[in-house]
From TrEMBL:
PROSITE patterns according to UniProt: NLPC_P60
InterPro entries reported for this sequence: NLP_P60_dom, P60_peptidase_YkfC, Papain-like_cys_pep_sf, SH3b1_dom
Keyword Protease: yes
Gene3D superfamilies: endopeptidase domain like (from Nostoc punctiforme)
Similarity comment: Belongs to the peptidase C40 family.
Keyword field contains Manganese: no
SUPFAM superfamilies, per database record: Cysteine proteinases
Keywords noted in UniProt: Hydrolase, Protease, Signal, Thiol protease
Protein name in the entry: SH3 domain-containing protein
Pfam families xref list: NLPC_P60, SH3_6
Domain NlpC/P60: 309-463
Lineage: Bacteria, Pseudomonadati, Pseudomonadota, Gammaproteobacteria, Lysobacterales
Length: 464
């Protein structure tokens, strides 16, 4: 009995050692970023600071109404399904020329060499504008994999300076599997299509799009039941049987039909289905036409049977799922940029936003507070003090999402390739954040003389 008691006591003593060590590890530690310690890098910290964190901000009906308003009022969006049966050639040319204008500033390749005039001539020729007919039948397709959207029909990367090879100036955005598009033109080499989606119009590699009838394309987008990807990104199960749906990246907010009645012992692409969700995905046949096939998404994937309730707690938790992800201009690197980040967070609630910061910040369909250069510092600071979780704060070329207040300051989470503040000596410190980061808003500097607050152009509140 004594031995048993002694053994239990020793086990209890040793069991307590890791616990003490664990407690020490969670003590706040400085991060090197102004105003941020390690406790502020968890979603629970910010959720716990909210009153009524789980109260619904907009219900499904209100979100649907706002999305319709956005589609009707925002000039940056395209009503792809509402396009006429025949497209006017002048409209097609306008779409292309609005994007693919000849660069007027110097550009450099990945070797640091200036992009030659001959190269630019070739890009303009690749647009094949003379081949646009006066009218053409409207064609449709579904995107079959995460695919880059490009300024020109080329994978060539170009940069504004020789010492910055992160921001490819020909990279526009990305489309995700299941995105419906209108196919409106083909490049001279027949390897690229110019496509128009609801949120963007740009060049995409043909192999990333499967062509189908209008009915095929839009019936897929309405299929029920479905799953919504609520993780930063998930991947379908690997399969050598059908590489087109193997290890396919599905980003936050992507909606995929699910076959809930699929027998668990029946295989999908050579694998029993009972440990996975059986989802339907578009693939491109050898002739370029659309086919819908089953694929497996592991049950461990971060998905939901519908869009998440739009609450403060969920906004914070969804945004933090990207924390630390590398910044990717125009969705480079399989990641995203600042406007893509906030778009995908809100998309997990079914809320649509324009793709780019310049369009998001001025959208007439949202609850906008605008500023101009004449607005005083006091007016700006009053607005900053009133910021709420989920508010989107815009400065030229950048957007941040508010996650709460702490120590008298509003804090934001944002996907940034910069981040600067003044050091103890009053000199500008460059944080080189280059990823999804948590920072206080007010200390951030645009330069040595201007703060981010001084540069705010708009605040958009996704509220009634």
């Amino acid at each position: 009995m004594k031995r048993t008691f002694l053994l239990a006591a020793l086990l209890g003593l040793f069991a307590g050692v890791p616990a003490l060590q664990a407690d020490a590890r969670v003590a706040p530690q400085p991060t090197g970023v102004i105003g941020v310690d390690t406790t502020q890098l968890t979603p629970d910290y910010w959720v716990g600071r909210q009153r009524q964190a789980d109260r619904v901000i907009l219900d499904r009906g209100a979100i649907a109404s706002q999305n319709r308003k956005l589609q009707q009022q925002d000039p940056s969006l395209h009503d792809v399904e509402g396009l006429p049966a025949e497209l006017d050639g002048a409209q097609v040319r306008e779409w292309i020329e609005d994007l693919s204008s000849r660069p007027s500033k110097a550009l450099y390749d990945d070797q640091g060499k200036p992009v030659a005039k001959k190269t630019l001539d070739g890009l303009m020729d690749a647009l094949n504008l003379k081949a646009i007919p006066k009218t053409q039948k409207t064609r449709y397709g579904l995107v079959v994999r995460r695919a880059d959207l490009r300024t020109f029909p080329t994978t060539t990367r170009v940069f504004s300076s020789v010492d910055d090879t992160d921001i490819d100036r020909f990279q526009e955005s990305a489309f995700f599997p299941g995105t419906p598009v209108a196919i409106v033109h083909e490049s001279r080499d027949r390897k690229w299509w110019f496509v128009v989606g609801n949120l963007y119009a740009a060049w995409i590699e043909k192999q990333a799009v499967a062509e189908g009838s209008k009915t095929q394309v839009f019936s897929y987008t309405r299929k029920v039941p479905y799953l919504v990807v609520t993780g930063a990104h998930e991947r379908t199960a690997f399969t050598p049987d059908l590489p087109a749906v193997s290890n396919l990246q599905l980003d936050m907010g992507v909606r995929v039909p699910v076959l809930r009645d699929w027998p668990g012992t029946k295989t999908v692409n050579g694998q029993a289905a009972y440990t996975s969700h059986v989802v339907e995905l578009p693939v491109r046949n050898g002739d370029g036409n659309l086919r819908i096939v089953p694929a497996l998404l592991p049950r461990t994937a971060d998905v939901a049977p519908d869009y998440l309730p739009l609450t403060r707690a969920n906004l914070i938790r969804q945004a933090f799922k990207f924390l630390g992800e590398r910044y990717g201009w125009g969705h480079s690197y399989g990641t995203r940029d600042c406007s893509g980040f906030v778009s995908e967070v809100y998309r997990s609630f079914g809320v649509l936003l324009p793709r780019n910061t310049r369009d998001q910040g001025v959208s007439p369909a949202l609850n906008r507070l605008a500023f101009d250069t004449a607005d005083s510092r006091d007016k700006r600071m009053d607005a900053v003090a009133d910021l709420q979780v989920g508010d989107l704060v815009y400065i030229p070329g950048h957007v941040m999402m508010v996650i709460g207040h702490d120590n008298g300051m509003p804090y934001v989470i944002h996907d940034t390739n910069g981040g600067s503040w003044l050091g103890p000596d009053g000199k500008l410190v460059s944080g080189h954040l280059n990823g999804v980061s948590v920072t206080p808003l007010t200390p951030l500097r645009f330069n040595a003389s201007q703060t981010y607050v001084d540069r705010i152009t708009n605040i958009q509140r996704i509220r009634p």
